[in-house]
Input
Amino acid sequence: MNLLQSVILGILQGLTEFIPVSSSAHLIVLPWLFGWGERMLSSLTFDVALHLGTLVAVLSYFAADWVRLFKAGLASIAERRIGGDPDRRMAWFLIVGTIPGVVAGLLAESAIEGLFHRPGEPISASAMIALAVILALLGAFLLLAERLAGHARTMDQLSLKDVVIIGLAQALAIFPGVSRSGATITAGLALGLKREAAARFSFLLSAPIIGGAGAKSLYTIARQIQANGLASVDLASFAVGFLAAAVSGYLCIKYLLRFLAKHPVTVFVLYRWAMAALILGVVWARG
Output
């Protein structure tokens, strides 16, 4: 049963990490709805597996972009100038845009995570209500950005100010229900980016912070293994969850970019509102 749950949660992570509906909310809500109380599912090991899977997805899908940006970044350091090279600008924009999220994670992530996600303990009704409110509010902001923005700018037209604003939006993703992609796509749309451009920049911007968080967690896991060892069931679930998240994440990026090239984000707004209503309804029914 653990392996089946790992597959389900891995697929869910891969899809919702990039669709603007909040992966953290889904990983909280699904076990809460179905009463999955297995400690493994809320363990650091499993969480790392899912996030490393989505990291592999975004690195592999944009592999050519990463190679080009990495070379451009190194060249800008070697020559001590950025100049008019759009790849050099983008490489540094990704670094600048990542900083707010790193600062927010270091200062507040553990405290906020503790309000929603204590391993082995049931989630309180008040935490679920807060999650529903966050889902609904971000949906409203996403709808406003969709309706009021111009959808005319490309990634090459991003300015340093734009990148800082999008980076600050990404920092809000420490709150479950906000959604890293939801916040950054909303900010990108509000700044006038085309939908596909907003999503593409959002996905590229996610890689450094997912990778950094994954590296930090892997270090913690390595220390745990050294001290206490790690159960084989955890390792099996790690592998299954990782693969499910990587494959579903890759496919999600591919088809979401195609979808956003022709369609508005309204369907994701409606989904967020429906999910918020479902959470509130279940909380009310459970009394």
Q: What stands out?
A: The mean pLDDT is 89. DSSP finds eleven helices and no strands in the chain.
